[in-house]
Amino acid sequence: MNFIRQSLITKALLLFTLLLVGVMTVGTILKRSGASGISTNVFLISLLVLLVVIFTAFVVDVMLPLNRLTKEIRHLFSGQNYKRVEPTTVDEIGMMTNFFNEITADLEKISYDIKERRRMSSELDIAAQIQKDVLPKETPPAQGLDVVARTRTASEVGGDTFDFLLSPDGSQLFIYIGDVTGHGVPAGLVMMMVDTLVTALVSQGIADGKTLIIQTNALLTPRISSRIFMTNVMLRWDKNAQKMYYTGAGHEHVLVYHTKTESVDAIQSGGIALGMIPDVSQIAQEKEIPLELGDTIVLYTDGITEAKNPVGEMYGLERLKKALQQNGYRPSSENILDGLTKDFSGFVGEYIQNDDITMIVIKYLGPAAENRKVQLIVNTEKPTGAKKVWGWT
Amino acid sequence: MPCVTPEIIGDHTAIAHLQGEIDVHLLPEAEAVIKPLVENPALTTLVLDARALTFIDSKMVGYIAYLRTTTAKSGRHLCLVGVNETVNDILSLVGLMQVIPHFATLDEALKTPAA
């Protein structure tokens, strides 16, 4: 009998058959009994009872479930509160009821996901704004140097950082670049911690790169997961002596373009990344980078050397060195940066950006040069959809 | 072919034989194999056999740094064996080769007092 319950058509056929059998049975009985005087009334009453039974069955089994379902569908379409409908039949109406319940459950989940995504997107926007606010805006004068920095993040919150900090007595300018493993919120939080620590330590009067790296690491390491670390290179420009020093913390090479020989040196930054071990005092070293007039230092993050072109080739250190060799003669750091970024963008083309990219170009102009401020170019373009291509020029 | 194959030598030494390129996609598989070795207090030395390891990304570098920290905190030993030039460059760049003992051969690693 289950097949009858599963279909409205078979139910209708059943009721029609019931009616037909009822009419024929009553008619046959009346004819055989020969009581023709009461036959019409009995026939009509019997027929009426049968019709009432059939109508009641139709109302209970078809109309009421359909009414409950259409009422909730109207609520859904008109934006009113709707509720789940308990299926009472297993026919087409029961199927539609189950379908309605499934669809509305999915809608609720999708609606929750959309709300949650909006909330997270809003929080990411706030985090990205906070991070941009942390990046240097008021840059200190760089006596003897022409400095330009450019950065772009791969996601809303990036893991690359850089800053320019003047010691309290104004004699030392610290220039650093850092790259936290990965990108996104975890990397951004570590980047913020390092920026805060370095700024605080410089403001307290630490006057050399080695101590700055040791103390930043000592404060950072216990506060982050040992799987996350920041590579960093810290330059210290002694304005009075016109000398440049570097302290590495497991970062990429420091590139130096020598004007006199038109050659490029790639100095290993050395050291160990911040956050890996609690004490780096035996590893960190501050060394001088001898500079002559017109020499140029380039700091960069691995987003540049590990960038790939559409056929999967990496840009690499050698291409960057060659580009610097070709552009190092230019008169300003901005010109040199333009040359480097054009070469880089020409190589990677439309390749989707996977990592943050940052570059700092520092040209030594000598003590007689005018006192210039550091130039900053922060690409604030939100990296979404088609805008994620590497357009860096 | 699994990216990590474990081996226990004697009562106290574990070797994780690393293979191929281990990046962010294969790291969970590598972790699943190495984790029981790190969590076993009887194993006082963990040898990362990198002779067949061709490449690692920054996530795997982070995991090796984590292994170094975890073993050092519990007074155990971590060492690397047979690191090729590419992997050596990556680990040297971030400074890990300065703090993790490394050997050319497995025999050398197993002969050290720590092992």
CATH H-level superfamily title of the largest domain in chain A? PPM-type phosphatase domain
Q: CATH fold name of chain B, please?
A: Transcription Regulator spoIIAA
**In order across it, which strands form the biggest sheet of chain B?**
1-2-3-4-5
**Number of folding domains of chain A?**
2
Please report the number of helical segments of chain A: 9
- Taken together, the total number of domains of chain B comes to 1
Number of strands of chain A: 11
Secondary structure category of chain A: alpha+beta
Average pLDDT of chain B: 91
Strand count, sense and barrel status of the largest sheet of chain A are: 6 strands, mixed
Q: What is the CATH top level name of chain B?
A: Alpha Beta
Oligomer: heterodimer
Form type of chain A? rod-shaped
Name the CATH architecture of chain B: 2-Layer Sandwich
Residues in helices of chain A, as a percent range? 40-55%
Strand percentage of chain B: 25-35%
* Structural class determined from secondary elements of chain B: alpha/beta
Query: How many strands in all of chain B?
Result: 5
Care to describe what's here?
Helix content of chain A is 45%, strand content 18%. Chain A is α+β, with helices and mostly antiparallel strands and 393 residues long. Chain A has 2 domains: 2-108, no CATH class; 139-388, PPM-type phosphatase domain (Phosphatase 2c, domain 1). In chain A, the strands form 2 sheets. In chain A, strands 7-6-9-10-1-11 form a 6-stranded mixed β-sheet. Chain A has a 5-stranded antiparallel β-sheet with strand order 2-3-4-5-8, with helices on one face. In chain A, helix 5 crosses helix 6 (209-220). Chain A is rod-shaped. Chain B has one domain (4-109): Transcription Regulator spoIIAA (2-Layer Sandwich). By secondary structure, chain B is α/β, with parallel strands linked by helices. The interface between A and B is medium-sized, with 20 and 17 residues.
